[in-house]
Inverse folding.
């Protein structure tokens, strides 16, 4: 028997774990309308995506009514997006995890049984202590995403381990952050420090603002458009922002670096760059000028398909508006395996335009100086996360999830235990299905903490049901932005079923591991109150107002003509990176042509849709009604070749033989004939997700060819090619 078989959470020993499907939508449609009852308001921070908009939860006679934006929240403009207003769906979803579950073997078959919190927590603590005693606490790793992950990172650090990784680093923003740090000494931040509301020209490269619905970004982009800012969108697909643009550049996929180098060529050769800014703040301009001389618009045209006159015209538009020009750094920046260098090129283009930390370009973010609750120092780990995969990805500033997974396979694996918080690894990490199964066979302990029975729960030894964000305290929101502010998430309801808040789970485990001194609070509210009092507020005040804004202490932009400090080795903007050169990498971006599309195949392009956040919200009953499945965008020429029509169902097969679930075809000229497109996050396999299971296709299972960025470990996922397996309306092969 395998050490750990994959188990469907619907297979349980015990009763009462599954709610009738007839109740699926009932809880979300029975909320009271405002009438004669008593209406109360509770502040919260939305958890439907990472943007953390502040909101207010309204109840009538104690029953959930609605969630709206907090009018004082400058971070969100006082508004919530579609997903934010659907927070009641997350709270009322009957498919929520309800009780702790533990893996057991019955009649030779592995399954889950319901257990008490005490039994589950004691089992985990005993296993963790055993790993620490034999191998060291560092061999316990945390894989996490979302605000609540902080509680378990605190637990592991108190335990003696700093081994952790966020999939978002390698799968999303990591190349951008590293590329900007190598250039400016600072990351592009999150939220992005773009000053789009004051920009006169905005350039988007594969950044689908309006489809990914990052609330604050959508609002500032809309504000810029309403002020007649020039919008230039580079995208092989006619995306939502492309439809709002004066210039849409339908670039050949994988050639963005060539275009960026071509733009730099025009700025330098035509003397359009900000000479004073570059002379004052940058080094390496001479090397850059020599480097980009070869990347003429005529040469770039041959690689990108963008006409030379368009390249020149758009470069001139950027220069004309500078420094109020934003070449947006994007968010999902892991594409083709050379992504740090592409992000470097974006940063360098912004430097030539003089937009970094200047009005209409990028602002200087500031947060509140909020002290941390006084606790003992953490024990110093003997190993850090990167020691699990030595000599790889020298500029990775965080743990790389793929590296952690690979270092968890085999009897001699580096890691011996995982705690997984808020991240569905089978959908999040492409191309690692076999390694996940191998890791499950190797690890001594796998703990999953989540609100929903997603696919990753099938690998767990213990599943712990966290309550939703409407039922718990989390840390104060204190993100660096234009305006420093604090925002509070507090419980609007008692936890449903037997679910518990993350802080409580971490504290209980900490006490069983003898770490009481790191968890001195009886209630997390006590910790938050102490921190708030240090900045002239209190928990009582924040429970009333939800958001508190503070005055800035620093300028929002560079003081014109004044010295500026950059946190690079040279203390200047580094157009030529000696750091990269010293590690054997190109000191300036170099274009490498992408792999051509094989005959009979199409490049798999993917993205977001406004109604959903990755796979996190697909089972939300309110959002499912808006978007129950994803669609496959297919160019009419391709559709005609394969006798496809809008509404047909197909399956997709990767070049390596992976086959997707079925997906509905949408024939459209908004995508070129060399690619297909689908929204990410669909195609769930977990039968407990009764709305999401089998709805649409999962793009990640088709990503069988992953290009790893050698600089920081980013997973390039856009080098995959698929073809069609036509289906009948019932889903069988025709």
């Amino acid at each position: 028997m395998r050490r750990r078989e994959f188990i469907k959470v619907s297979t349980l020993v015990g009763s009462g774990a599954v709610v009738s499907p007839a109740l699926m939508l009932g809880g979300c449609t029975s909320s009271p309308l405002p009438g004669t009852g008593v209406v109360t308001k509770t502040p919260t921070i939305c958890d439907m995506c990472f943007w953390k908009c502040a909101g207010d939860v309204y109840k009538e006679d104690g029953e959930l009514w609605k969630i709206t934006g907090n009018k004082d929240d400058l971070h969100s403009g006082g508004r919530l997006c579609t997903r934010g207003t659907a927070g009641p769906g997350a709270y009322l979803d009957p498919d929520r995890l309800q009780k702790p579950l533990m893996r057991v073997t019955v009649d030779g078959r592995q399954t889950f049984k319901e257990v008490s919190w005490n039994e589950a927590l004691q089992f985990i603590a005993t296993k963790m202590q055993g790993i620490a005693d034999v191998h060291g606490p560092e061999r316990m790793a945390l894989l996490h995403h979302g605000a609540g992950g902080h509680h378990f990172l605190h637990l592991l650090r108190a335990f003696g381990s700093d081994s952790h990784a966020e999939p978002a680093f390698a799968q999303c923003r990591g190349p951008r952050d590293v590329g900007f740090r190598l250039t400016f000494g600072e990351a592009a931040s999150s939220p992005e420090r773009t000053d789009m509301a004051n920009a006169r020209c905005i350039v988007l490269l594969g950044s689908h603002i309006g489809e990914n619905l990052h609330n604050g970004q959508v609002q500032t982009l809309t504000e810029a458009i309403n002020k007649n800012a020039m919008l230039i969108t580079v995208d092989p697909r006619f995306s939502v922002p492309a439809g709002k643009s004066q210039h849409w550049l339908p670039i050949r996929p994988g050639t963005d670096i060539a275009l960026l180098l071509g733009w730099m060529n025009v700025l330098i050769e035509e003397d359009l760059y900000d000479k004073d800014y570059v002379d004052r703040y940058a080094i390496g301009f001479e090397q850059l000028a020599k480097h980009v001389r070869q990347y003429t618009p005529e040469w770039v045209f041959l690689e990108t398909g963008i006409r030379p006159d368009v390249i020149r015209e758009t470069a001139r538009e950027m220069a004309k508006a500078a420094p109020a020009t934003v070449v947006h750094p994007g968010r999902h920046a892991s594409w083709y395996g050379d992504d740090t260098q592409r992000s470097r090129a974006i940063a360098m283009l912004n430097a030539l335009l003089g937009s970094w930390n200047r009005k209409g370009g990028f602002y200087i973010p500031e947060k509140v100086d909020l002290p941390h609750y006084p606790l003992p120092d953490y024990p110093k780990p003997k190993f850090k996360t990167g020691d699990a995969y030595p000599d790889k990805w020298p500029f990775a500033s965080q743990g790389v999830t793929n590296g952690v997974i690979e270092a968890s396979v085999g009897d001699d694996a580096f890691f011996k235990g995982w705690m997984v918080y808020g991240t569905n690894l089978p959908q999040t990490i492409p191309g690692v299905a076999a390694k996940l199964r191998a890791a499950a066979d190797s690890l001594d302990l796998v703990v999953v903490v989540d609100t929903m029975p997603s696919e990753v729960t099938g690998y767990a030894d213990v599943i712990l049901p966290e309550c939703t964000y409407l039922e718990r305290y989390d840390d104060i929101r204190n993100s660096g932005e234009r305006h420093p502010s604090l925002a509070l998430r507090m419980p609007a309801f008692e936890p449903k079923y037997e679910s518990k808040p993350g802080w409580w789970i971490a504290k209980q485990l900490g006490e069983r591991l003898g770490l009481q001194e790191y968890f001195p609070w009886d209630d997390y509210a006590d910790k938050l109150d102490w921190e708030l009092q240090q900045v002239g507020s209190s928990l009582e005040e924040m429970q009333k107002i939800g958001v508190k804004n503070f005055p800035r202490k620093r300028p929002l932009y560079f003081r014109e003509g004044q010295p500026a400090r950059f946190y690079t080795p040279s203390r200047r903007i580094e157009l030529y990176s000696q750091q990269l050169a010293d590690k054997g990498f190109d000191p300036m971006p170099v274009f490498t042509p992408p792999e051509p599309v094989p005959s009979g195949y199409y490049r798999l392009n993917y993205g977001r849709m406004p109604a959903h956040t990755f796979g996190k919200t697909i089972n939300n009953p309110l959002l499912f009604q808006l978007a129950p499945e994803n669609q496959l965008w297919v160019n009419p020429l391709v559709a005609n070749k394969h006798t496809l029509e809008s509404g047909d169902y197909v399956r997709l097969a990767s070049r390596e033989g992976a086959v997707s679930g079925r997906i509905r075809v949408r024939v459209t000229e908004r995508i070129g004939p060399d690619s297909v497109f689908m929204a990410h996050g669909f195609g769930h396999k977990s039968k407990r997700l009764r709305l999401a299971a089998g709805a649409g296709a999962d793009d990640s299972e088709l990503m069988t060819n992953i290009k790893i960025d050698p600089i920081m470990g980013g997973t390039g996922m856009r080098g995959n090619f698929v073809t069609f397996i036509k289906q009948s309306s019932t889903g069988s092969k025709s």
Notes: The first helix runs from residue 26 to 29. Residues 182-365+565-582 form a domain with the Dimethylsulfoxide Reductase; domain 2 fold (CATH 3.40.228.10).
